[in-house]
Amino acid sequence: MKVVSVVGARPQFIKAFPVSRALTGRHEEVLVHTGQHYSEAMSEVFFEELAIPTPEYDLGVGSGTHGEQTGEMVTRFGELVAHEDPDVVVVYGDTNSTLAGAVVTAKTDARLAHVEAGLRSYNRSMPEERNRVLTDHVSDLLFAPTERGVTNLETEGVENVHLTGDVMYDAILWARTRAADHSTVLEEYNLTAGEYVLATVHRAGNTDDRERLATIMRALGETDREVVFPIHPRTTERLETYGFYEDVERQLTLIEPQGYLDFVRLLDEAERVATDSGGVQKEAFFLDTPCVTLRDETEWVETVDAGWNTLVGADEDAIERELGREVSLPEKPELYGDGDAAERMVALLEEHDG
Ligand code: UD1
Ligand code: UDP
Fold this sequence. Notes:
Elements: E1 2-7, H1 10-23, E2 28-33, H2 44-49, E3 57-58, H3 66-84, E4 88-92, H4 96-106, E5 111-115, H5 127-138, E6 141-144, H6 147-155, E7 161-163, H7 167-182, H8 185-188, E8 196-200, H9 204-207, H10 210-221, E9 226-230, H11 233-242, H12 245-251, E10 253-255, H13 260-269, E11 272-275, H14 278-286, E12 291-293, H15 301-305, E13 309-311, H16 316-324, H17 341-351
Parallel strand pairs: 1-2, 1-4, 2-3, 4-5, 5-6, 6-7, 8-9, 8-11, 9-10, 11-12, 12-13
Helix pairs in contact: 1-7, 1-17, 3-4, 4-5, 7-13, 10-16
Bound molecules: uridine-diphosphate-N-acetylglucosamine (UD1) and uridine-5'-diphosphate.
């Protein structure tokens, strides 16, 4: 079987590596990087530490408006698919790279498999929600990480849905001990385990709104603990444009975006995490770190229902209150499979081959 895998943004490198490993030696995989993320700390570092082969193609698309970025990917990926003629194209998650891969594949004979299918925030103003819905509705094989994902797709009348578990859980099982054994990130930034809050903020809904971003930054700056903030380039750019980068730098411990193992180590040892990331909400759950989510809704509703995640939006009081609240760690249900999601996906690809 010839598999073309499409990645482009940071979380996709992490989602793809367990699948790449499961394919190795059994099938031919052509890894394609759209170039959506291109800074060393947002791209190259992951290929080095996850020991996945350098992508065979880098489409070099880079940043732009949604239309420019997605359109450019469609053009370049379209040519590639015509040339490679794969049996199946695998796309991951909900970024513009996911959508471009899906749109192109939908117009060829290749099958389209969507990893992380069925997720819904039910907030259509999120670009990711539109990307997910569109991708799910043109996919031939849908790999849902959760029961909720399966139910969401059933409600929309989508067929060929398989509950596989979550590849990010596969990834964390690989990374957690490696990070504990090899990462020196705590020493590097002089941090004490259990005594800092980790923060990540990059979602368009938070960063494109000056007031909302200002409120979140203020609330983080007012917490008693040290707040360590590996800052996404999008957020750096917005803070500079809005003119409050220096204020934030004074109040928070701003650090570069981290590699995966260092980030996992930071999250594992944090007293708490405040984030608007999708992946980080789940990783916090896997690593027993209580999560405060800087959004009004989430696709990962199970983490909230289980008591491991609290939605606070950009409400200054709620952020401060939740970050300061004592939490006793609730029981942990098995929500995201058993760590074999990638193997299950490859078995399903084989079953549906030809
Ligand atoms: C994208 C995804 C988002 C995902 C996030 C993961 C879409 C619509 N959004 O958002 O779902 O959660 O990736 O991190 O696909 N930039 C750099 N260097 C880079 C990449 C980006 O400087 O390597 C800066 C540029 O100024 C760029 C901005 O970040 O304009 C935004 O990048 P973009 O890829 O458009 O969206 P993200 O916010 O990263
Ligand atoms: N991550 C990382 N370094 C960082 C921040 C995040 O390696 O500095 C990893 C994190 O462990 C998770 C993924 O990147 O696996 C999440 O990516 P991001 O928050 O950018 O995107 P989202 O999940 O919201 O789409």
